[in-house]
Amino acid sequence: MKPSIWKWSTRTVVTIGIGAALYGATSWIGIPIAPDTQLRPAIALLAIFGALFGPVVGFIAGFIGHVINDFIQSGTVWWGWALGSGITAAFMGLIYLSKDFNPKDGVIKKKHLISFIIYGVVGIFVSLAFSGLFDIYAMGEPNNKIVIQVISAGLVNLAVFLILGVPAVWAYAKRNRNNANLTVER
């Protein structure tokens, strides 16, 4: 039985801390693709933490992790993009709410993968639309710069999610399914 997304324990807080630290520490690894925009493999961590621990843990870990990364890289937090990372992870974490989805016990079906992909794709574009609009209206950034950032970030985040994030969650569940049939012989 999966814990409720609202039931907090020491393990939940530690998971958020680990997720935020991993995302924040690995987000600096990237390939520049547009102004202030990189292809970041760390996006896969948002998928993993969201799917395995739910949308609330995913949101908080993604948000705090992005804040950590912003401080490490520039000393300035881009709040719209930090919230966007949290939104992305929260959408990816919606799969956790599926009644029979439980990768920790090796339960993942084709319908779960399809739902996970849909949640992830929608989450990526909702979060980037939010981040872009936030930058335009709250930060006064030029429209053409933000459009380039949002489109390029959307495409590369989608690629990382589909190439690294989805297979990582599937492999985790498959590994646990294989181990679930072990018995102790006496």
Automatic annotation (TrEMBL):
GO cellular component terms, semicolon-separated: membrane
A Pfam family: ECF-ribofla_trS
InterPro entries for the chain: ECF_substrate-spec-like
Superkingdom of source: Bacteria
Spans traversing the lipid bilayer: 12-31, 43-65, 77-97, 117-140, 146-173
The entry's keywords: Membrane, Transmembrane, Transmembrane helix
NCBIfam families (UniProt xref): PRK13661.1
Protein name as catalogued: ECF-type riboflavin transporter substrate-binding protein
Organism name: Paenibacillus anaericanus
